[in-house]
Inverse folding.
């Protein structure tokens, strides 16, 4: 049995000021582990552009997962067309689909009251580990369900999430599809905030 000792980056605050450190740490760890896929939550495209730039000229694939259409305003998508073009020119895959920790379940809770089981999972992850941690797990399953990352017993990817804007969490994960949520494994924490947003 081999024990590995690695350092973890802990941030004093949540939010976008941590993005550059997260991106650099993720690129470095992907290189060390031979990981070929980095999944990053990026609504505007800014964080994904930074990630794609950091792994330029490597064989690492960046998958940018955005908010679904209509989340903020009916029928509208939040990513700017110019940023989408930049990402596509950089070879980044952009995927958009419904949030796995909300979707239809959230609409039922809003209309009828109470909490669904998916709300319990989401709120637990957010409260205990932080919003960026929850987002990193969520976008991994969204990318897996879209067919943009491989899913198997021996696959590892890096997932990046953030609190509000930017990136503040990076994880090494064994990915899973949403219907097989309990097969998802956190293998390493690369970076995360020490203090969580209330």
């Amino acid at each position: 049995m081999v024990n590995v000792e690695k350092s973890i980056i802990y941030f004093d605050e949540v939010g976008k000021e941590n993005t550059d450190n997260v991106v650099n740490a993720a690129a470095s760890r992907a290189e060390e582990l031979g990981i070929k896929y980095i999944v990053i939550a990026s609504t505007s495209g800014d964080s994904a552009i930074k990630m794609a730039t950091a792994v330029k000229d490597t064989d690492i694939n960046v998958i940018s997962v955005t908010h679904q259409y209509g989340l903020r305003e009916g029928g509208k998508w939040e990513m700017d067309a110019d940023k989408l073009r930049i990402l596509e020119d950089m070879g980044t895959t952009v995927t958009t689909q419904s949030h796995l920790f909300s979707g239809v379940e959230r609409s039922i809770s809003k209309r009828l009251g109470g909490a669904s089981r998916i709300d319990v999972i989401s709120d637990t992850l957010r409260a205990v580990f932080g919003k960026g941690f929850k987002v990193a797990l969520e976008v991994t399953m969204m990318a897996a369900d879209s067919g943009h990352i491989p899913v198997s017993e021996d696959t590892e990817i890096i997932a990046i999430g953030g609190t509000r804007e930017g990136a503040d969490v990076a994880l090494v994960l064994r990915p899973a599809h949403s219907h097989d949520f309990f097969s998802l494994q956190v293998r390493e924490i690369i970076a995360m905030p020490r203090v969580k947003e209330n």
